[in-house]
Amino acid sequence: MPGTPVRDFLQSFSTDEKYFIPHPFLWKVRFETSNAIKGQINAALNKAGEDWRARTFPDDYTKNGSVLVAQTITIPGEQTSFQEVGQANRGGFLPGYGVTQRESFLTRQLTINFIETDQDICHDFFTPWLIAIGIDGLINQQLKCNITLKQYNNQGKLRKGFIFDKAFPTNVEGGGTLSYADSEFIVKTVTFGCKNYRQL
To answer: Which domain holds residue 125?
Structure first.
């Protein structure tokens, strides 16, 4: 006797691997060519007479292939703008509509919440990077890099991943409140724009 739809689903849900829901556990972040970007950051800041230098870069955090740990990643969605088209005094007819444009990656951004360590990567790398972009502008293509995100489950297996092409920071959360009281881990948010992104 065939099972009911609910029974069939629950049976597949418990035994068929494609229905499993892996528990998201860890985001790892990798910035390609970050060492080269560090040189470009310092060159731009030197031109402006800034004393703030990039004292570290993401590869400093490398150990056994791991780079940065992120608590939360916000992947941009897809958005298209529409506009009504037509003419006045159409009587009871509804106006038409059409596509005006796809929204850019400056509107739908990549946001990463980094867990802060004793070495402050926000003040030592991301803030100087953003200042350097303000000095040189995005014409300096060497101030852009690819960002690779990989999410692992609690068994250490790769769950999903994304590559963001020609990314650059647009906002760095450098501030925060520090106290001696018991508190959660300090998390700093960095927002990026990019040219495009794709799944691994």
So the answer is: 22-39+50-77+96-199
Q: What angle do CA 116, 117, 122 make, to 5 degrees?
A: 50
Residue 82 inside a domain? The answer is no
What CATH number should be reported for the domain holding residue 123? 2.30.110
Non-local (6+) Cβ contacts of 155 within 8 A are 22
Give dist(CA 120, CA 46) in Å, integer. 21
- 164 found inside a domain: yes
Q: Report whether 96 contacts 166 (CB < 8 A).
A: no
Domain count, the chain: 1
| CB distance 69 to 115 below 8 Å | yes
pLDDT tens over the chain, length 200 residues = 456 777 777 777 677 766 666 666 678 888 887 778 888 888 888 888 887 777 777 766 655 554 567 778 888 888 888 888 777 777 777 778 888 888 887 777 889 888 777 777 788 888 899 999 999 988 888 999 999 988 887 777 888 899 999 999 999 986 666 666 666 677 788 999 998 899 98
Alpha helices in the chain (DSSP H): 5-15, 34-47, 121, 127-136
Give the three-class secondary structure for 5.
helix
